[in-house]
Glutamyl-Q tRNA(Asp) synthetase (Ottowia oryzae), 315 residues
Amino acid sequence: MVIGRFAPSPTGALHAGSLVAALASWLDVRAQGGRWLVRIEDVDTPRCLPGADQRILQQLADCGLVPDEAPTWQSQRGHLYEAALARLVDEGLAYPCACSRKDIALAQAALGRSATRGVELPYPGTCRPERGGLHGRPARAWRLHTGRLIPNQPPAQDGPAPAATHFIANSALTITWNDRRLGPQRQDVATAVGDFVLRRADGLWAYQLAVVVDDAAQGITHVVRGEDLADNTPRQILLQRALGLPTPLYLHTPLVLAADGEKLSKQNGAEAVDTRTPLQALNAAAAPLGLPPAPTGDVRGALAFWTDAWRTRLC
């Protein structure tokens, strides 16, 4: 069965861009006769606003986008992330790191590399066990060891997890996948990102680990989300393979841009979408998805119309 999800962060109410992703994920599931879930991604607790989760759920309900199961909250699932990290550590695929962002910048500067706007410098592997580990410094975070060979193929949906593999120095780690909208994609994770964080220096769980564990635990088969998250996909596929988890199908939706050309987001002051007039909000969300205005005056009829249009597109 197709199972999809919408996973907003409660750092504010839904804005026009996040409603596009919510509508797309709902339509994708409904067009395939599947189940649609909502997961509140609140692991980054310092950025979460009180009551934002309930407002998001109300906005979705106003628009007729009601999940088929009770919503879940990542903040209640820490034991699952703990177990996943413990497995990676046991298999030699994760290690503690003492480096700050300044340490990483200095290490990269020594290699003649400097940061560019909006792009995080890849981690150079300073604290890898084979390089001496923490060098007597206290651990700050936990990272995935991208220098260890990860199985090239994910396991079957109901198959056993693969055994851990051995360290291979300087191994290329190119992940390829096919995005249902963007087409063939590829990234050498070791070069582009390096050993990425699984648990942060402040003790909070990193998005990459939490989303991979949750998608597998909830049986998610289809991930539909904004194009700004496409760059996360190779890291998540890598983690799925490291943990012996299935890889969903991915579709990344067009971004809604602000007047200055930047991505519309809560960080740049995007206004909450007004769902007191839900059909107007939904028509606005349908447009970036290439869907025509609904020829009906009610939400249920509009959603049925767009579901048929989405199904035709899938075929």
User: Anything to note?
Assistant: The radius of gyration is 20 Å. The beta strands are 3-6, 35-40, 72-73, 94-97, 141-144, 174-179, 183-188, 197-199, 222-226, 249-253. The domain at 3-76+214-312 is CATH 3.40.50.620 (Rossmann fold).
